Amino acid sequence: METALTNKTIVLGVTGSIAAYKAADIASRLTKAGAKVNVVMTEAATRFISPLALRSITGRAVATDMFDLESQYTIEHISLAEAADVVVVAPATASLIARAAAGISDDMLTLTLLATKAPIILAPAMNVNMFENSVTQENLAKLKARGFIIVDPAHGRLASGRVGKGRLADIDQIMGAIQQVLAKSGDLAGKKIVVTAGGTREPIDPVRHIGNPSSGKMGYAIAQAARDRGAKVTLITAPASLLPPPGMAVMPVKTALEMKQAVTKAVKGADALIMAAAVADYQPKSVARAKIKKDALALTLELVRTPDILAEAKGKFLKVGFAAESEDIVANAKKKLKNKQLDIIVANDITDKKSGFGVDTNKVTLIDKKGKVEPLPLLSKREVADKILDKLLVFLPH
Ligand code: PMT
Question: Hey, what domains does the chain have and what are their CATH numbers?
Answer without folding.
Answer: 9-182 (3.40.50.1950), 186-395 (3.40.50.10300)
